[in-house]
Amino acid sequence: MSAFPDMFPDGLLFTLIQWLQALSAIIWTPESRTFWAYWLSAAVIVVIWATASWPSRKQHLKPWLTLSYWWNTSTRQDYLLILLNSLIFIGSAGFWLVVSISMANWAFIALSSLSPAAELATSTSLTLLVSYSIVLFLAEDLSRYGLHKLLHSRWLWRIHAVHHSASILTPLSLFRVHPLEKLLYQLRSSCVHGLMIGIFFYGFGVQQQAWQLFGISGFVLLFNIFGANLRHSMVPISFGKLEHFLISPVQHQLHHSPGYSRQNLGSVLAIWDKLFGTWTQANNEQTVSLPKVDKPLLHQLLLKR
Ligand SMILES: [Zn+2]
Ligand SMILES: [Zn+2]
User: Fold this and answer.
1) How many domains does the chain have?
2) Residue pLDDT, tens place only, 246-288
3) Is 180 part of a structural domain of the chain?
4) 272 CA to middle of ligand 1, Å?
5) 3-state secondary structure 201-215
6) How far is the CA of 288 from the centre of ligand 2 (A)?
7) Which ligand has the nearest atom to the CA of 151?
8) pTM score, two decimals?
9) Backbone angles phi, psi at 269, to 5 degrees
10) How confident is the model over 52-106, as pLDDT tens digits?
11) Domain annotation covers residue 136
C-alpha cells in the first residue's frame, strides 16, 4: 500500500517513482553521457582550452554561467523532450533485453545452420576480451553512423529534424530527440548487442563480456571523460589533424549548422564519414551557425512541416 493512498493509486505512484528514477539516472549514473563527473571533466577541458588562447576564447566560458543559456525557447524544448521520452520509455528495459536475446539466438541458429558452432573457446580470455571489445565498439559506432545517415534521408528526416531544430546546444541537447528516434536508436543498440553476443557465442563457445571500467564499457567511459558532452555545446573545440580519425565537438556542431547537416554523421570515429564521403574538417570557428527555433514543440512532435 502506498504512503499516499488518497492522492495516488499504487500503480500511478510506482510509475511516478520510476519516472523520477529515470530522470535522475541522466545525471547520477555513469552509463549516462551526462553523468555529473563527465560534466566536470568537460568543464576542465573547456578551461584548459580557453587558457591556451585566452583573449579569443574567454568569450566561450561566459554562457555557461548565464541563465539565458540554460533557460530559453530551445533549451525548454530540450527539457520537455527529456520529460516526455523518459515517461514514454518507463519499464521498457525488459523488452529490450528480450530483443537482444532474440537477436543473439537468431544469429547463433543462422550461423550454426551454415557450419557447426565452436564447442570451446580456443583463444585466451585476454585475446577474446580485447577482440570482442573492439568488434563491439566498431559495430556500435558503425551502426550509429548508419542510423544517423538514414535519419537524414527524406523518409526519416522529419523525425530527426527535432534534434536539429536546437538553436542553442547544451550537453542536455543530446536528449532532444523525437520519441520515434529514441525508439530507433534503442532498437539498434539491442540488435547490435544481441548480434555480437550470438556471433561470439557461435565462434568461441562462450558468452563474452566487453572491456569494462567501473561497470561500463571502457571505450564509452573514455569517450565521455574526454569531452563527449562538448559535442552539444557552443564551445568550438577542434581536434586539428586528429579530426581525420575522431569526430571533434566542433565537427558535430557543424553538423547542426543547416548548410552542413549531411556532414560529420559519426559519433566517435571519423572513419565512417571518410569512407562514405560525409567527412568535413571543421576547425574554422566561424562556420558554425545554428538555426532559430521557429516551430512549437507540438508541431515538431506531430512531424508537421
Ligand atoms: Zn543529424
Ligand atoms: Zn547533435
Assistant:
1) 1
2) 999 999 999 999 888 999 999 999 999 999 999 998 766 556 8
3) yes
4) 14
5) HHHHCCCCCCCEECC
6) 13
7) 1
8) 0.91
9) -85, 145
10) 999 989 989 988 999 999 999 999 999 999 999 999 999 899 999 999 999 999 9
11) yes
* Proximal ligand: closest to the CA of 231: 2
Fill in the DSSP letter of residue 291: P
User: Is the residue at 107 inside a domain?
Assistant: yes
255 alpha carbon to ligand 2 midpoint, in Å? 7
Q: Would the pLDDT of 1 be above 50?
A: no
Dihedral through CA 69, CA 73, CA 77, CA 83, nearest 10?
70
Q: How far is the CA of 49 from the centre of ligand 2 (A)?
A: 21
Q: Which domain holds residue 74?
A: 10-301
Spacing, Cα 150 to ligand 1 middle (Å): 9
The tally of CA atoms less than 13 A away on the side-chain side of residue 81 is 26
Q: What is the phi-psi region of residue 180: left when phi exceeds 0, alpha when psi lies from -120 to 50, beta otherwise? A: alpha
From ligand 1's centre to the CA of 149, what distance in Å? Answer: 8
Give the H/E segment covering residue 216: strand 216-217
Alpha-carbon span 16 to 252, nearest angstrom? 35
The number of angstroms, rounded, from the C-alpha of 31 to the middle of its chain's C-alpha atoms is 11
Return phi, psi of residue 171, to 5°. Answer: -55, -30
Find the 14 Cα to ligand 2 centroid distance in Å: 33
Residue pLDDT, tens place only, 186-221: 999 999 999 999 998 888 877 777 787 777 788 889
